[in-house]
């Protein structure tokens, strides 16, 4: 498949033009024109790029790309990343908020489904667009059961501050650093809020307002979208993919 055809399809499928985002979403670094293999990684770090080159990947999808609002000189570590991409002929494609918000392959929607809930629409408005998702259970779960399921999904470092209702039927989910949406989740009456990074300032807030909150880790909660998007590409265009797992532990 031609790189520009894949880029054009993804730009449309992910609705990149709908989002105001600090990330420069889309193709960030041009590589080989003919795509043979897709890679998926959370971060466009040097380690991910080196592994992609070793595995013969020529189209690398990441959640956290190299280009953000501020123009960064291509020197030092930034130069090393770009040089490795160019030397290996790897196209780097970044999808930040669009890959949080998408209700089919987005981080939040995939998390909801993997926890056994049904995706019930968007949640968490940012510049007029919903970047999170909400879910509804067929039958209520106990906080302990949901926390156990979340720990199985995200890993043993998953944290649960389960101070709220003892039957959970509704979820609000915003992966990564989504804790700022916790008050919005509370105001909307969700039984539990799930995000990546905990905030110290919200601990007593949640305890005193009797809220259920699960923190799955920034990295862990943002593996789902890139994998789901790569699986979509594999199914639609018959392009093989590999997930490059370079966890940060956070």
Can you give a write-up of this model?
With 250 residues, the protein is of the alpha/beta class. The chain folds into two domains: 3-95, 3-Layer(aba) Sandwich (Udp-n-acetylmuramoylalanyl-d-glutamate--2,6- Diaminopimelate Ligase, Chain: A, domain 1), CATH 3.40.1390.30; 100-219, Udp-n-acetylmuramoylalanyl-d-glutamate--2,6- Diaminopimelate Ligase, Chain: A, domain 1 (3-Layer(aba) Sandwich). The protein is 37% helix and 26% strand. The chain is built from ten helices and eleven strands. The protein has helices at 3-13, 46-54, 76-88, 97-101, 107-114, 143-154, 182-188, 200-208, 218-221, 224-237; strands spanning 26-29, 38-43, 59-64, 91-94, 118-126, 129-141, 159-162, 168-174, 192-195, 212-215, 241-243. It has a six-stranded mixed beta sheet, sandwiched between helices. α3 (76-88) links the parallel β3 and β4 (91-94). α2 (46-54) runs parallel beside α3 (76-88) and α5 (107-114) crosses α10 (224-237). It is elongated, with a radius of gyration of 18 Å. The mean pLDDT is 97.
């Amino acid at each position: 498949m031609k790189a520009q055809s894949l880029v054009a399809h993804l730009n449309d499928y992910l609705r990149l033009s709908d989002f105001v985002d600090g990330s420069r979403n889309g193709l960030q670094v041009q590589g080989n024109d003919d795509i043979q293999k897709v890679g998926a990684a959370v971060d466009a770090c040097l380690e991910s790029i080196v592994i992609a080159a070793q595995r013969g990947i020529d189209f690398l999808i990441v959640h956290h790309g190299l280009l953000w609002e501020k123009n960064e000189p291509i020197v030092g570590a930034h130069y090393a990343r770009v040089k490795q991409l160019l030397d290996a002929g790897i196209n780097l494609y970044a999808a930040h908020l669009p890959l949080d918000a998408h209700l089919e392959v987005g981080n939040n929607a995939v998390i909801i489904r993997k926890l056994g809930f049904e995706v019930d629409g968007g949640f968490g408005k940012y510049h007029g667009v919903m970047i999170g998702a909400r879910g509804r259970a067929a039958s209520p779960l106990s906080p302990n059961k949901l926390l156990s399921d979340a720990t199985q999904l995200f890993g043993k470092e998953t944290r649960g501050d389960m101070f709220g209702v003892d039957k959970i039927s509704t979820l609000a989910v915003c992966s990564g650093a989504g804790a700022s949406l916790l008050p919005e989740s509370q105001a909307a009456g969700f039984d539990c809020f799930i995000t990546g990074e905990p905030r110290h300032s919200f601990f007593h807030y949640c305890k005193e307002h009797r809220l259920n909150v699960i923190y799955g880790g920034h990295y862990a909660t943002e593996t789902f979208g890139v994998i789901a998007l790569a699986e979509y590409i594999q199914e639609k265009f018959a392009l093989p993919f590999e997930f490059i797992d370079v966890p940060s532990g956070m």
